[in-house]
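Hi there, hope your week has been kind to you so far. Thanks so much in advance, here it is:
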Amino acid sequence: GPDHRAEIHGLDWQATDTIAAAIGQSDNAFTPLQLGVYTSTLVNGGNRYAAHLLLRTRSIATGKDTSVTTPQLLGSFDLSDANRLTILDGMEQVVSTSAQISGYMKDVPVRVAGKTGTAQTGRANDNGLFVCCAPSRNPEIVVSSVIERAGGGSYSAMSAGRVLEAYYAGKTAG
């Protein structure tokens, strides 16, 4: 925002900077985890949950859960189902209309909705970002992938596709 721009770059914030920031451009620094939480909040209808990296632990001896992470709601906003479905439709088209991205998702047994991004670095190759959820109509998993110097977001979709494949393989095996 304006304060950060002035402090870090010694520049004034312009009206066009607000527009650029609104679409994810400008002086942003998001982690893959933050991108995943943001995407999850949108696709679940506006509920923001605390991120966690471990769903459960199980005893090797008994096969029973020894601990399970309970979802913690941090906040929410009103997002109509019509708007949520519009977002998911657009994200699904990102995957289905790109030969490259749809190829990366061909072995995922459900439809995937995703969004590419490119983090400009000022170097020869920009960083590639991809966030996605599946199944696209009723998401149960969100994956966020960032690959440094990938050149574009579609290249990050490959690793996200492999995560989804492993996730669904685990669901059918367990």
